[in-house]
Every structure is written in structure tokens, then in C-alpha cells.
Amino acid sequence: MNGWQEVSLGSLLTRIKDEVLIQDFEKYQRLTIRTNNKGIEIRDELEGHLIGTKNQFVVHGGQFLLSKIDAMNGAFGIVPEHVENGIITSNFWAYDVDEEKLFSKYFNYLTHTRSFQEFCIQASSGTTHRKYLREDLFLGMEIPLPPLTEQRRIVTHIESLAARVNEAQSLREEADYEAEVISVSARNQVFGELQKNIEPVRFDSIADMRLGKMLSEKSKTGLNSKPYLRNANIQWDRLDLSSVYEMDFNEDEKPTFRLKAGDILVCEGGDIGKSAIWNDELPECYYQKALHRVRVDREKTMPRFILYHIFWAAEQGHFADLKTQTTIPHLTGVKLKAYNIYLPPLDEQRRIVAYLDGLQAKVNALQELQSQSQEELDALLPSVLDRAFKGGL
Among residues 284, 299, 240, which one has the least CA distance to residue 265? Predict the structure, then answer.
């Protein structure tokens, strides 16, 4: 690394405390520093009479800014050039960058490296929940500093790689969306045809359904405590059992609220139509009032056929008309029971389920590959940055 030096931040950064008394009828840009190296942005622009803290500090585009509280969480960056009358409180520190020695963009990328972030963690002290960066330790940190021409070359190389990573991420997101569209389109084709050719039946004519037990303090005594499912446990065609709560179910309640294999659980609020099938993932489990439990008549239909039917209904906006007119949308039991189901013979249902399951398996496999590629993309830029500041580019 010809011409590289190890130089302390204190010789490159100068702390600026440009104090200002906020004037009532002058406009100010209040800045916020996002954690996890997400940079600096203008939070809002307000007249002074709307700003509570009157003694603040002025910052300008090009300065390096950090949060003494959240530096350990990646809260630092270069102030955008379009900031004209930015203000910060004393919890933020502003520094001028010696541009004859340090290219701001080079330093900004360097702050994204694992080693820089680990140093900020080590240089922060205080209680567990309130650690502050120690400025003496921060300014004493030494960074690898090549000549300015090399700094600019490194930045150009990083930005070129970052642009390609961003493009790849955009393509991955598009592919993920297109994969999901395949499933939606297939369900629309299948159930759209059934809608044209079959007379509907009421949902409650082919299934027993009811809401779960109301959650209350009285049900948390610890007596007869059993696991139960809530809205958060239900995802689209899958169960999230990473956090399962418990409440009391007495002997009279158990037959009513205990889940059986094949039960469909439909969210009563939130994402209307979000549903999953219970398959005895736990030895014994119940459910809360935020969920509809749908138990189909197996002589007439299949759980997975009805699950796909519910998904199609949600995607086509059918449940929008069933929601009550409250501030929080929810699907009542009365209206769910009256919903129209298009029910072909069981053999046809089995064929449809096999087709949609097979298609969904391919979509899931594709999305899993895309998820792996996303993890690789997420790891690529940090790896490039680490190499860059070790002279590896």
C-alpha cells in the first residue's frame, strides 16, 4: 500500500460548535441521523416558534455528523450538500473535514466498515441502555489514509460496485414480485372459471366456524394454562410458532377451542384473509378470539381447497365488502359464514389443489434461491469495503 499512512481522526476532523439562538419567524431544517449507516436526512423544516429547544447548533452540507448516543449503532454520515440552514441539538456532534487530506466520500464509506463500527462500540461508555461515544477515544482512532488521488480512485470503484449491487437487488425484487404474481394469476384463473360455471354455496353450509376465546386477565391465572394461537402466529399459508403465548382453558372450554389437524385459521383483523392450516404442530393448542377457526366437512371439501379459495377471495377484494365500517378493518363471523364458496366435486378439488400446490412449491423454491442471493448481495458490499480500506481494490 504505497503512500498509505495510519492517521488519527483528530488530525483530519475539527469539531464545530456553531451556536444559534432559534428565532421565531426564521425557518430551520431539523436533521436526523438514521442508524445502521443509513445516513443523514432533513427530518422537517419549521419556523422557530414551533421548535421547543431554542439553543441549538448550525450545520452545513459536507460536514461529518454523528450522534454521540447512537454512534455505536451506525448513526453518522456526511451532511447532504442541499442542507442550507440545518440545526442539531447537543446530542449531535459536527466536524469540518480537512479536504486537503481527506476526501469526504472516502471517509463516509470507511465509516460503513465493520472495523469502524466495532471501534465506535468499544469507544462508547455508560449504562447498558445509554452509552455515549467518548470524543477523546473517537478522535484518537487511526484510519488508513492513502493519497487523495488514491482515495478518489477507491471511491469511484466502490460506487461502481455499489451501483451493480443495487441493480442486482432491484432485479431480485422484481423477480420475487413476478414469482408471487404467478401464484395469484393461477388462483384467479382457477377460481374465476369456477365462479362462471358453478352455483355458489354458503360457507357455513360446508364448514363449522367460530371465533376463539376472548383474552382477559381472568384467563391468565396459570391454572390450566395452555398454548394458543393469535393473529401474529398466522402468516399466508404458514404458521409462525416462534412465540406462542399461553392462557387458561377450563375443561368446558377445551372441546370448543382446541385445534384439530386440518383446521383453517383465518385472521379476523389486520390482513383480511390471511390464513393457514393447523396440522398438529404442537401436541395441544387452542386459539384466541382474533382468529376464525374453520373446520370443513371432509365429505364435501378439502382444507387446502378452501385455503386457496380464501386467498383468491382476498386477492380479488371480495372481503373488502364484508369488513365492518370501523377504523380497524375486521371480518365478522356472521359475514364470513355468509360468504359464497364455489365448490366443484371432490375429485376436481383434489386436481386443483395438486396443481396449485405444485405451482406454489416451484414459486417457494424460486423465492428461497432469491432469498439466498439477497443474503449474498447484502454481504458483498461490506466485504468490498473491508478489502478497499486494506488496499485490496
Answer: 240
Which set of grid coordinates corresponds to residue 207? 364448514
Q: Does domain 5-146 sit in CATH 3.90.220.20? A: yes
Number of neighbouring beta carbons within 10 Å of residue 102: 21
What pLDDT was estimated at residue 131? Answer: 79
Residues (pLDDT < 50) of the chain are: 323
Lookup: cell for 102:
481527506
SS3 58: strand
**Residue 55 contacts by C-beta under 8 Å, 6 or more apart in sequence?**
19, 20, 21, 22
Place of cell 473535514: 97
Largest CA distance in the chain: 81
Homologous superfamily, domain 199-343: DNA methylase specificity domains (3.90.220.20)
pLDDT tens string 253-297: 999 999 999 999 999 988 888 999 999 999 999 999 999 999 999
% pLDDT > 90, the chain: 63
pLDDT in tens, 65-115: 999 999 989 999 999 999 988 999 999 999 999 999 999 999 998 998 888
**Segments making up each domain of the chain, as ranges:** 5-146, 151-177+345-393, 199-343
Q: How many CB atoms lie within 10 A of CB 362?
A: 12
- How far apart are alpha carbons 56 and 335 in whole angstroms? 57
C-alpha of 252 from chain center: 41
Judged on CB neighbours under 10 Å (0-12, 13-18, 19+), 375 is exposed
Distance CA 314, CA 211 (A): 19
pTM for this prediction: 0.61
